[in-house]
Amino acid sequence: MIARRTFLAGTAGTASVAATTARGTAEAADGSGAQQQVDDDFVAFLTTAADARVAAVLDGVTGNLTELRDQCKARAAARSVRALVSVYVHGGSAHHHRRSLLAPLGRLADALAEEQYDDGLWDQGAVHSPPDTAFSVVDLNMAHSLLTEDAHPPTERLRATIARILRKAGPGLATGGVHTANHRWLVCAALARIHRRWPDPSYARRIDAWLAEGIDQLAGGEYSERSPTYSGVVTNPALLTIARHYGRADLYTNVRDNLTGSLYVTEPNGELESVHSRRQDQTALRYMPEFLMQYRELAIRYGDGRFAAVAALLRERGAGQTFGETPLGDRLAEVLDRPELARPLPGITSFPTDFEHHDASCRLVRVRRGERTATIFGGTDLPELHAISSGLSTNPTFFKMRKGAAILDSLRLSPQFFSLGHFRSQSLERDGDGWRLRADVRAAFHQPLPRRHRRRDGLYPLTNDGRFWSSMDFPHRPKEYRRLRTEILLRETADGGWDLSFEVSESEVPLALELCFRRGGRLTGDGLESVAGAADTYQLVSGEAIYAVGDDRIVFGPGNGKGGRQPPVVDPGERYTWLGGSLTPDGIRVLITGRSPLTYRLSLH
Questions:
Q1: Of 22, 109, 180, 581, which residue has the fewest beta carbons closer than 10 angstroms?
Q2: What number of helices (H) and strands (E) belong to the chain?
Q3: What are phi and psi of 413, to 5 degrees?
């Protein structure tokens, strides 16, 4: 590990990036006198990005203190402080010790102090919110630590203001509650940093109480929220902070396991598969750059060549400055705060690009053959919990496929069965050389109540029959059920394509397969017909069709006539339509319709 003071001292005297790291060496933190190499090129890369970020940050610091206080959002303001401090203290920056930064830094800190409540917390999407305050505390603590190490006299007042903010925030974080699983670790990280500088037994007790609940990590490496976004932005950074600042080195293993699992949900273009997430990103694209510093840190810590390869690739992709949710320039502060991140990466080895990976804890299968990938998903929470709600996995997409730039973002099945909505598998099992998804759903017609449950006033309990609520005392009524059984067998073909065999039985209902391709490609096929009233939506009536992006293409079909309803309908189910909701994915949609009982094979190649 490189000593921070030595690293900063080695950077303080010159604007030359090549000289910022004392010619590539720094004294080891253990005082042994050993010399550790420094990756000058990586430090220069981040420094350039941080310098370029200054103008955008300063544009957000306008008006007098009252105006700034009125528009102050604690998380954004604290991140701005961190970004400006990083270039101020860093000798390799063009803004090193530039006095023009002191006024905006002071105004930001003053605004944060003014907006902080008496309990030490801020409002940021929630009133007096400990977890949202923790985001700001982590950034401010990092900035305060850098300023203290730099010890430049003109920042004395700024340091005092930030210290006052941090000390005021500690008790609120040590007593306040949280909303979500990842908040626990975020609050611990914030407290760990405060506790290290201003020890307080109540901080340690609170950290220990949260950690005693156990880290919510599934066997496949995902955390309980199964969200790449929250893993990369919150949980992993928080656990690494706790490991470093609270002596919990065991938490490095949790982060390593998560990063290992993430290798298998990474697309060739750097997107992360998130169909299995229980958070907002289950229907949104997420990118891997948020993991840059995590892969770099653990590659160095464990000498892991796979992680080094990912870190190098993410750095290459970050050259354009569009870098996930966190601007690349904001990362310089992390290297200054943890100089070990500036060490050169270990030797690069290949990471997985040819595999079939089954994460049973998420009921997710990922297949990759170079530039071709596929996702099979059977792990929504709806079959078990019979609910659609924030914090649950409910995305009905059960298959995805990529061939280079040709991307099938979603394949769904929508039967018109009692308005129960899309097919969502109740299991994911290996079946020979393929994978099988199954669902058995039922809906009831209700018979008269038995005599012993009848009421003269007719006022029966308000109960749920699985589709809707009514004052009919559903649990005590005899029922006559209708069932719909669906099985899908998915097999990879020798040419890198996929065959999907569908068996839908027991009830006679119209249904629609919905294929949604990413915008930007071209759709062709003699059997395609536009669906009236639905933009960018087609029905494949016969033969095969082609979706192409440049030379990459996915051939799919065959069409299945015009069975089912006319025009074809994709029904999201009463849980959505009652509230005016929609499950229509964005893209170019192709419907293949039919009527159960149905046996059908879809070919994608």
A1: 581
A2: 17, 23
A3: -125, 125
